[in-house]
Each structure stands twice: as structure tokens, then as C-alpha cells.
Amino acid sequence: xxxxxxxLAVTIERYVAVCHPFHARSEFTWKQxxxxxxxxxxxxxxxxxxxxxxxxxxxxxxxDNNFIRYVILTAPIRRHPMYDKVYVFMGYFILxxxxxxxxxxxxxxxxxxxxxxxx
Length: 119
Fold this sequence. Notes:
Elements: H1 2-19, H2 21-27, H3 30-47, E1 55-61, E2 68-74, H4 76-79, H5 81-118
Antiparallel strand pairs: 1-2
Helix pairs in contact: 1-2, 1-3, 1-5
């Protein structure tokens, strides 16, 4: 998630630098870039916190207690239909695929139009 939004941030910065060059220096400084990167990393980490509780590791020992087998089982939260529908499907589809893809398409088309019409 972080890499997608960092790519989007670079695309937006390039859009401002190409299409609005006089505002680029005042809009994007190193300090603001650090805050943007930090915000993206924090947002990505916080959004993905529920994924740490989707599975449980269970230790199963045999009858002689000399062999331990670890099994990964889905947790109750992962089997909940609302969690699956809202968080996994809609949340990831919208936040990880749809919005970044549309934004990348729009900004790259705008950059392309600005570059191709100015030459």
C-alpha cells in the first residue's frame, strides 16, 4: 500500500512541477515531502493493522508429546461476512486499486497533454 501511494505522491509532485512550475518550489519542499512520506507510511500501517489478527497459529502436539506441528487457522474476524465485504473487498478494492489507478491515469494524462501541447 505504501509503494502505491508513494508512486501517486511522486506523480502528483511531477504534475505540479510540469503543469504549474511557478508553484512547484513553494508547494513541495523537503520538509513537506518528509511529512507526506511519513503520513503515507502511517496511513498504510494503520489501515493494515487488522490483517495481523486474520490468522492464528496453533501448536498441535502428537500423543507422545515429542512432535509439535504448527497449523495456521483463520481467525473469527476473517470469517465474518461484514469484515470480508467491507474491509477486504471494498476497502482494498477502493483504496488500493481504484482510487490510485484513477488518480495515476488522470495526472499522467494531464502531464502528457501539458508536455505534448507545449512542444
